[in-house]
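Justification of computing resources. Each target in the renewal requires a structure prediction run like the one illustrated here; the chain below, 175 residues long, is used simply to show the kind of job we budget for.
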Amino acid sequence: MMLRKMIGLFAAVLIALGGSGCKLISTAPPTVVPPPEDSPPAAEQSAAEISVTLDIDFSAVYEAANYEKLDPALKNAALPQDGTFGKAAVRSAKEGSTALDVLRGYCDENGIMLDVRHGMAGISDYVRGIGGLSEGDCTRNSGWVYEINGTLPDVGMSDTVMKDGEHLFVRYIVY
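Resulting structure tokens:
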């Protein structure tokens, strides 16, 4: 008799909860719905790829007047004599990649040191050095700049989203 009262009380509580807007929790395993047969595999559903041409040029350092001003430690460093770290290198990148993403990917894959100063709130990241050649190594005002299709953007590399077919030109300038 006591068991019958407890079952009745339990049933009353369940009915009250169901009618009060509370949801009862199911212990049944979730139903897994397979993707439609015509959908591409997960690997193909990743972000689209773009193609970007990248040049990294520091040939200005080797001009006679500038070379005299170059930090003496760098004159004996393993800087490529052709004045480039990459010449017309075609890179694949995920759609939405920034100019800095493209540069960082190339440097990582080719063992080139990249010195980036992370900007504070609202300020873009800043490329301080590539391959051991940093801002101020030739003159007080020397450093790295970049162009997209021959145009100097008015924002930093981490704020410039690359588009398919664009040319990213990173150049060390001396002035």
